[in-house]
Amino acid sequence: MPVRDTATSNGTETTFVRTFPALPLMQQLVNLGKSLRLFVLSVGLGLSVPVSLFAHGVLLDYTQSTGITVQARYDTGQSMAGAQITVYAPDDPARPWLTGVGDAEGRFSFVPDPALPGTWSIQARLAGHGAMVHILLSPEQSEHTPRQQGYTAGQRALMTACVLWGCIGTALYFYRRRIS
Amino acid sequence: MSLFKRRMLHCLLACFLIFPFMAASVQAGILTFYASGEDLATEGFQAPRLSKDGWTLTFSHIFVTLSDITAYQTDPPYDPNQGGPIPGETLASLPGVHTLDLVMSAQDDNRVLIGAVMDAPAGHYNALSWKMTRTTEGILSGYSMVLTGTAEKNGETVPFQLYSKEERTYRCGEYVGDERKGLLSAQGAADLELTFHLDHIFGRADKPADDPMNTEAPGFAPFADNGKKQMLTLQGLHIGHAGEGHCNVEWH
């Protein structure tokens, strides 16, 4: 089948027509099979891995999780639009864990690290005024978080040594009494 | 019992008696209290931060008299919007009455040292209270706050001296500012700040006229009376803060 190509050079458009010799029927069937396999593979890849479909396309991923939303507003009820937000985690209350800016309604959302139970403190400030709120994240709320179970190797070695020493001491005590 | 054994027993007894005190001192640190009128006190109200009615203000002195300065460790944290006494079990109090000049005594960071508690229990001091009280000595006797300086507008310069007799107690939650304050580690040091927001008296020209602070502040115009001694009524104005955090006010 002829294939038509177009090229432009120095303002001149040039058309090329490429022709291919006719293939035997068996070879055409083999080529068709290869094309179908390639098509199926392409569809499969398209379903499993994000691929660039368009230039400047936007991909928006999401993860569903439990978070905290704070809303900063003045005591008059007016929203503190664009408030500077600082989040402090319970394990290091002196250093900001997260900083950000509230929206036009003064809202700010974040997901606390469930491995850090305790009091989370969130500070909102704008133009010389600010406030702080404290949220207690109980250990039960983060119990699904995998934690290290059992004892460390050092603790196990110490316990073993203590038990052995107890046995030896007891044996020596009775041995001494028998001699005396 | 031999003499040696008795002496050993006495030494052990003394160690047991001293141990709790030593342990307590190890678990304590230095908590320092500062007062600040911020840069509005030290630099004044300069353009574009004029008073709400357009006056340039320069302060020569801002005297405040403070007492009953106490920091608390509270759990749950104190909410100044709810008001009432601060229910802290662990606290550090600075004794005495302190009259300070927020202008002439200010350091480079606009703060004035009030004093320090050298053996404050370690922990997080997340609440603060103090009383504005009347001075009983000197030329400021009978006043809790005095502001003097000059104001200028449209080429006219007027001196001013404003006096307040009002006594009140401020109760604040945690300090709000660039950094977190009041986190005192064992044998460490921490500080807290009693902050005075002067724009709640004079307003700010660089903020909207309908800003609640501007609608409440009297501005400077009512005091532009060529240097005469005038009384300043602060009731209803929220001058006392912990950094940028508002405080509950009890007027006496």
Which helices and strands, and how do they pair?
The complex is a heterodimer of chains A (about 180) and B (about 250).
Chain A: E1 3-9, E2 12-18, H1 25-48, E3 68-71, E4 84-88, E5 96-101, E6 107-110, E7 118-126, E8 129-137, H2 153-179
Antiparallel strand pairs in A: 1-2, 3-6, 4-5, 4-7, 7-8
Chain B: H1 3-26, E1 28-36, H2 38-42, E2 56-73, E3 90-94, E4 98-101, E5 111-121, E6 123-124, E7 127-132, E8 145-153, E9 156-164, E10 168-172, E11 183-184, E12 189-196, H3 199-202, H4 212-216, E13 229-231, E14 240-242, E15 245-251
Parallel strand pairs in B: 1-12, 9-13
Antiparallel strand pairs in B: 1-5, 2-3, 2-4, 2-7, 2-8, 6-11, 7-10, 8-9, 10-15, 12-14, 14-15
Descriptive key words:
heterodimer; A: 180 residues; alpha+beta; Immunoglobulin-like; four-stranded antiparallel sheet; two-stranded antiparallel sheet; 2 helices; 28% helix; 28% strand; elongated; disordered N terminus; B: 252 residues; 13-stranded mixed sheet; two-stranded antiparallel ribbon; 40% strand
What can you see in these coordinates?
The complex is a heterodimer of chains A (180) and B (252). With 180 residues, chain A is of the alpha+beta class. Chain A has 2 helices and 8 strands. Among the domains of chain A are: 3-38, no CATH class; 68-142, Immunoglobulins (Immunoglobulin-like), CATH 2.60.40. Chain A has helices spanning 25-48, 153-179, and strands at residues 3-9, 12-18, 68-71, 84-88, 96-101, 107-110, 118-126, 129-137. In chain A, the strands form 3 sheets. In chain A, strands 5-4-7-8 form a 4-stranded antiparallel beta sheet, with no helix packed on it. Chain A has a two-stranded antiparallel ribbon with strand order 1-2. The longest helix of chain A has 27 residues, at 153-179. The radius of gyration of chain A is 36 Å and the shape is elongated. Residues 1-23, 32-52 and 143-150 of chain A have low confidence and may be disordered. Chain B has 252 residues and is α+β, with helices and mostly antiparallel strands. Chain B has one domain. Mean pLDDT of chain B is 91; it is low at 19-23. Chain A binds chain B through residues 74-76, 78, 88, 93-94, 119, 121, 123, 125, 127-132, 134, 136, and chain B through 76-77, 81, 124, 173-174, 176-177, 179-180, 183, 197, 199, 207, 212, 243-246.
